[in-house]
Design goal:
Layout (H helix, E strand, L loop, with lengths): L2 E7 L5 H15 L3 E8 L6 H17 L1 H10 L12 H17 L3 E4 L2 H12 L6 E5 L13 E2 L1 E4 L2 H9 L7 E3 L18 E5 L7 H9 L7 E5 L4 H10 L7 E4 L5 H7 L2 E4 L3 H9 L4 E3 L6 H12 L2 E3 L6 H10 L3 H12 L4 H10 L6 E3 L1 H13 L12 E6 L4 E7 H11 L6 E4 L3 H6 L2 H11 L4 E8 L3
Parallel strand pairs: 1-2, 1-3, 3-4, 4-6, 6-7, 8-9, 8-11, 9-10, 11-12, 12-13, 14-16
Antiparallel strand pairs: 5-14, 15-16, 15-18, 17-18
Helix pairs in contact: 1-14, 2-3, 7-8
Length: 467
């Protein structure tokens, strides 16, 4: 029998669900996948919980963006939260848990940190045997995504992978895959003036009005397609604004044409959301970044600027002038287009699924003591190999495949060696009787249970990171 793949997302913005849909499309074409389903965990939670997470975030981003930035920075340190899931979240997760049990997946992919934490708790309790993956959806890695157990972890770029491995996480479980997108097929190149694709986002942000107003003052020859999302009031306002120049502007509401529009456009003007930016890069489309949400979108923009694939406009009053300058500079747009194409990862969804389904059978378990060490190393700006003494990190590796199955603190090894030590220095983890379990700490019990899965015992090698 083939895989039963469950993709868990959360509808905070459109990006997480877009990544889930991209994965679903690729999975549906794989011969080793019998059935695939996407579940937005917020859609099966309470209305209050769903509105607070999905709508509350954007209310704060519009009204008090400094608070969003503060929240992003506070939640950025890896494993800052190490305790159990809070009661309110756990209560709202019950319908999602029922759906997981009903579907009985053999593999799970999480495109939001909320279901990723839920799945990790199921792995540690022995309530789940499916292979699990966490797929981040921004170019910048945020520590909030890290969980205590998973089979594979995917970040958008190489720097994120280096960041995690320097903190002690095993490189065999971290992949720089890019962000999963639904890539459009190539379209014929049309002659004519450059086309600006101005996006207000799926919800339709009012900043698009200011952008369009400034393009009316441009001197360069161009056409523009304005996508207003689901905001019909915004669409009507912009249609009225550009009425004197109907020959130059095309105004759309929510559209399924976005992938092909990205292929036809010469320049994207909008916010650097993780999925929007990834779609542009995969299409080789340079960006003019406007009105980024503090936190992840600002950091996404920093990366695109660093790659040479974007320019940023920090004030609406200069957007038209900046685009004029960009279009007038010989070769500038072509260089940005090349940089975007080099940055893009159109095969990210294929890489995620291939790595997960063909990869490690056992999960990686990170003990709470090890999580505390990772958090401390992050705060002190040191790499894991610099740590010594009881707080140093060690890995338990399955020799047959070379998969790291656990990240532990050195101080935890004494107890494990006392119970499971072999003469050659390896450990033979095994299911123990109640008497032995009573002498083992709770963390060691969870580790052994999750790593063994349905097996009776497993021999692992110990690798000291400092050594």
């Amino acid at each position: 029998m083939g895989e039963r793949l469950l993709i868990l997302s959360a509808g905070v913005g459109s990006g997480h669900n877009s990544a889930a849909e991209a994965l679903r499309r690729v999975a549906a074409q794989r011969p080793d996948v019998d059935e695939v389903r996407v579940l937005d965990v917020l859609q099966v939670s309470s209305v209050l919980y769903r509105d607070l997470l999905s709508k509350g975030y954007f209310v704060l981003a519009d009204g008090v963006p400094w608070l969003v930035e503060w929240g992003y920075d506070v939640s950025d340190p890896p494993f800052r939260r190490r305790g159990p899931i809070d009661p309110w979240t756990r209560a709202n997760a019950l319908p999602a848990l029922r759906e997981i049990r009903r579907f009985a997946p053999t593999a799970i992919v999480c495109t939001h940190f909320l279901p990723a934490g839920l799945v990790a708790s199921l792995l540690l309790r022995g309530a789940l045997t499916a292979r699990t993956a966490v797929v981040t959806t921004d170019y910048d890695f945020q520590g909030l995504w890290l969980t205590s157990a998973f089979h594979a972890f995917f970040v958008a770029r190489d720097e994120g992978r280096v960041q995690l491995t320097n903190l002690g996480l095993p490189g065999d479980r971290i992949t720089a895959s890019g962000i999963p997108i639904t890539a459009a097929p190539p379209v014929p190149v049309e002659d004519g003036p450059p086309m600006l694709l101005i996006s207000a986002g799926a919800a339709g942000g009012d900043y698009a009005t200011a952008v369009v107003r400034q393009t009316l003052h441009m001197t360069a020859d161009f056409t523009a397609t304005v996508v207003c999302g689901r905001n019909e009031e915004l669409r009507a306002r912009i249609e009225q604004l550009v009425a004197p120049r109907r020959d130059r502007y095309r105004v759309l509401g929510y559209t399924t044409e976005m992938p092909s529009l990205l292929r036809r456009a010469s320049l994207f003007v909008g916010k650097p959301g993780g999925l929007s930016a990834s779609e542009c890069m995969a299409a080789g489309l340079p960006m003019v970044l406007v009105n980024p949400i503090p936190g992840q979108e600002v950091r996404n923009g920093d990366y695109l600027l660093e790659q040479g694939a974007a320019v940023r406009c920090n004030t609406a009053s200069t957007i038209g002038w900046k685009i004029d300058r960009l279009l007038a500079e010989p070769g500038r747009l072509a260089r940005m287009r090349d940089a975007a194409a080099e940055t893009g990862r159109p095969d990210a969804a294929e890489r995620v699924l291939g790595t997960l389904l063909e990869g490690a059978r056992r999960p990686l378990v990170i003990t709470r003591a090890a999580q505390k060490t990772v958090l401390g190393a992050s705060g002190r700006k040191v790499v894991a190999t610099d740590l010594t003494g009881p707080s140093a990190l060690a890995r338990l590796v399955e020799p047959e495949r070379g998969d790291t199955v656990a990240l532990v603190r050195a101080s935890e090894l004494d107890d494990l060696r006392d119970r499971y030590g072999a003469d050659d220095g390896r450990l033979v983890l095994r299911r123990s009787g109640l008497r032995v379990l009573a002498r083992l700490g709770w963390e060691a019990q969870r580790l052994v249970g999750a790593v063994l899965g349905g097996d009776g015992e497993l021999e692992v090698a110990v690798e000291d990171l400092h050594a």
